[in-house]
């Protein structure tokens, strides 16, 4: 309870520091955000392909709604702890964080969350553009699904952060955790619906995607926002998303404990 109390007291300060850093390094932050605009390129490609006839259930307006929603979800759920963690492990500065009373992953989470207001400054105008150019018909009007979407955004962020923490912690075990991250991002791009809506893949690929965590980091919230799920299906998948998030957080914690013991044993 004392540790939880310490975290609750310290977290607002950590968020303020994180926001100040995001503002101070706004040029670098903007460059990072621009690297997540691949959905706009895919929108141009698929809108052109659907000019003559719909692809599956997707016409041009459907593709516009899907990829703009994808851009919003990606902006609001991104985490970059893997780069911070691997850099500090490589440079030998991680022990400074280990000496502090708060768990380093708590501090990293605050840094990542603190940037959300700046990301929202990008996402909100995109949402306005979505409504103007695609019309309300392509987005859910169901209050329950809108609420589920907000909960799913939180779950998607937790999943992103937990798996980025796991991959970053691998830097305590292997020389290049970023190589694992590159492989992870390749799978994410395909199996999350980031590049292509999962509905357009063969049925067996969709079944695989439904049991892996990638879809719940992006495709699931996007489908909620664009009205691609029933109420029952949305709630079932929300349960799966949060089950994955819980498992990933427990996995990150266990890997961190073992990794820090190994790291300290080798004089890190």
Structure, explained:
The chain has 268 residues and is mostly helical. It has helices spanning 2-24, 26-34, 38-49, 60-77, 81-91, 94-98, 104-114, 116-134, 143-169, 177-191, 203-211, 214-217, 219-225, 231-265. The mean pLDDT is 85.
What coarse outline follows from CA principal-axis ratios?
globular
What string gives the helices and strands in order? HHHHHHHHHHHHHH
- Largest sheet report: none
State the secondary-structure class. Answer: mainly alpha
Please sum up the structure shown.
With 268 residues, this protein is an all-alpha fold. Helices cover 76% and strands 0% of the residues.
List the helices and strands and how they pair.
Layout: H1 2-24, H2 26-34, H3 38-49, H4 60-77, H5 81-91, H6 94-98, H7 104-114, H8 116-134, H9 143-169, H10 177-191, H11 203-211, H12 214-217, H13 219-225, H14 231-265
Helix pairs in contact: 1-7, 3-4, 4-8, 4-13, 5-9, 9-10, 9-13, 9-14
Salient structural properties:
268 residues, mainly alpha, 14 helices, 76% helix, globular
């Amino acid at each position: 309870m004392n540790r939880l109390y310490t975290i609750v007291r310290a977290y607002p300060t950590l968020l303020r520091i994180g926001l100040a850093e995001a503002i101070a390094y706004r040029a670098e932050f903007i460059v990072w955000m621009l690297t997540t605009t691949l959905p706009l390129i895919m929108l141009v490609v698929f809108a052109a392909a659907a000019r003559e006839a719909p692809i599956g259930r997707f016409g041009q307006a459907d593709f516009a709604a899907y990829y703009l929603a994808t851009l919003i979800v990606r902006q609001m759920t991104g985490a970059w702890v893997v780069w911070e963690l691997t850099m500090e492990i490589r440079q030998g500065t991680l022990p400074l964080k280990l000496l502090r009373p708060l768990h380093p992953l708590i501090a990293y989470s605050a840094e990542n969350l603190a940037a959300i207001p700046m990301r929202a400054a990008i996402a909100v105008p995109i949402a306005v553009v979505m409504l103007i150019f695609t019309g309300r018909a392509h987005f859910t009007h169901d209050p329950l699904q809108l609420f589920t979407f907000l909960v799913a955004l939180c779950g998607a962020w937790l999943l992103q952060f937990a798996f980025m923490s796991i991959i970053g912690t691998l830097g305590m075990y292997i020389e290049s955790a970023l190589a694992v991250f590159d492989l992870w991002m390749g799978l994410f791009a395909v199996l999350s619906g980031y590049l292509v809506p999962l509905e357009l893949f063969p049925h067996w690929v969709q079944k695989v995607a439904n049991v892996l965590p990638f879809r719940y980091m992006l495709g699931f919230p996007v489908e909620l926002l664009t009205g691609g799920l029933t109420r029952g299906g949305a709630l079932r998948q929300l349960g799966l998303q949060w089950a994955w998030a819980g498992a990933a957080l427990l996995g990150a914690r266990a890997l961190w404990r073992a990794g820090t013991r190994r790291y300290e044993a080798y004089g890190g």
